[in-house]
């Protein structure tokens, strides 16, 4: 059989799109509204990821390259309690990279169509691990809440101000994070919130870029070498009124709402029914205290033909305060290290992108 260059090129594109992704559709209560890119800002990056250096410094990290304005994007009106999601573009056949997902909101000072996202952002949703009895293999594959799902969603909180917002859905793929090559997939929708009662944005505020630093442990965490927990929250705590799905060790797949306190703030408590492993916040690379570590495996650097190896840091065994009423009580989370027979997948660079997606 004779294959043309077009045939090979098309096949490669389909294969690549199955692993890489972006978001183009707006879901309301799990139903697509309008057309692709009607309410989501179209960008110029296609389904290719961003890496940590650009994430830390570039304005493109807000809504992606070429999406600094939403003049050609419509605005959809939502109300508190609505489930709002950003759906994958192209095949929309599900996220197939391991890692957490989160949703950020930024209130436009006027029309969101003219807003560049340079103001403050809050996190309103966090998806972690959702598989009970999470193993090292699960952490590397389908143990994450958003694995095989084709959207990242949140529920509009009651306690935010009315107005027009950028909704930024983001997934961080960790398969290359041991080499400093975590992959960021994200896009922004434009919505108008009506019927809410807040007078100011609740919770911790961040700027984008600036939400992650290149040395943050949450985005440099190695999922290889036998680790079976992800003891971080990337970026800020989830704001009061927002939600957390899953847990550090997958023991709970429930979705819990962060309580709204009298002062408009709250502790970032883990979901009810979760194991005693807390989920500390990683801000500017601050991680949980460690008491011991598993051996550090040597893993391939992922550069084609190179004999060099990269030594990855081992899974920390966190002993962190339980954030309940200022208690000094701490809980130690134990991790069981396997012999580290797993070989990390190569990161998505120009030399090995096609090779990795053929695995």
UniProtKB/TrEMBL annotation:
Pfam families: AA9. Keywords: Carbohydrate metabolism, Cellulose degradation, Disulfide bond, Polysaccharide degradation, Secreted, Signal. Residues 286-301, 329-343 have a biased composition (Low complexity). The keyword Secreted applies. Residues 20-227 form the Auxiliary Activity family 9 catalytic domain. Its cofactor is Cu(2+). Its EC number is 1.14.99.56. Residues 1-19 form the signal peptide. GO terms for cellular component: extracellular region. Its main location: secreted. One of its GO terms (biological process) is cellulose catabolic process. It catalyses: [(1->4)-beta-D-glucosyl]n+m + reduced acceptor + O2 = 4-dehydro-beta-D-glucosyl-[(1->4)-beta-D-glucosyl]n-1 + [(1->4)-beta-D-glucosyl]m + acceptor + H2O. Belongs to the polysaccharide monooxygenase AA9 family. This is lytic cellulose monooxygenase (C4-dehydrogenating). It comes from Cephalotrichum gorgonifer.
């Amino acid at each position: 059989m004779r294959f043309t260059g077009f045939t090979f090129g098309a096949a490669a594109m389909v294969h690549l799109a199955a692993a890489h992704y972006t978001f183009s559709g707006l879901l309301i209560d799990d139903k697509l509204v309008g057309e692709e890119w009607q309410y989501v800002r179209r960008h110029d990056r296609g389904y290719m990821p961003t890496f940590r250096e650009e994430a830390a410094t570039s304005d493109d990290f807000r809504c992606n390259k070429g999406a600094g304005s939403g003049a050609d994007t419509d605005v959809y009106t939502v109300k508190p309690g609505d489930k709002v999601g950003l759906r994958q573009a192209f095949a929309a056949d599900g996220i197939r990279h391991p890692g957490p997902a989160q949703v950020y909101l930024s209130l436009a000072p006027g029309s969101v169509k003219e807003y560049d996202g340079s103001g403050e952002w809050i996190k309103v949703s966090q998806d972690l691990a959702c598989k009970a009895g999470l193993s090292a293999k699960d952490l590397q594959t389908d143990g994450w809440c958003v694995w095989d799902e084709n959207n990242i969603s949140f529920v509009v909180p009651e306690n935010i101000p009315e107005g027009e917002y950028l909704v930024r859905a983001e997934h961080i793929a960790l398969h290359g994070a041991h080499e400093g090559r975590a992959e960021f997939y994200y896009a922004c929708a434009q919505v108008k919130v009506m019927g809410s009662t807040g007078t100011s944005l609740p919770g911790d505020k961040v700027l984008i870029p600036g939400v992650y630093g290149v040395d943050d442990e949450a985005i440099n965490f190695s999922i290889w070498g036998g680790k079976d927990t992800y003891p971080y929250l990337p970026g800020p705590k989830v704001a009061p009124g927002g939600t957390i799905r899953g847990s550090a060790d997958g023991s709970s797949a429930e979705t819990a709402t962060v309580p709204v306190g009298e002062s408009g703030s709250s502790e970032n408590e883990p979901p009810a029914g979760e194991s005693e492993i807390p989920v500390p916040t990683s801000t500017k690379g601050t991680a949980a205290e460690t008491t011991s570590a598993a051996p550090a495996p040597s893993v391939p650097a992922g550069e084609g033909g190179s004999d060099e190896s990269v030594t990855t840091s081992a899974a920390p065994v966190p002993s962190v305060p339980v954030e309940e009423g200022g208690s000094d009580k701490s809980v130690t989370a134990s991790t069981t290290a396997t012999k580290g027979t797993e070989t990390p997948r190569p990161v998505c660079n120009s030399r090995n992108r096609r090779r990795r997606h053929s695995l």
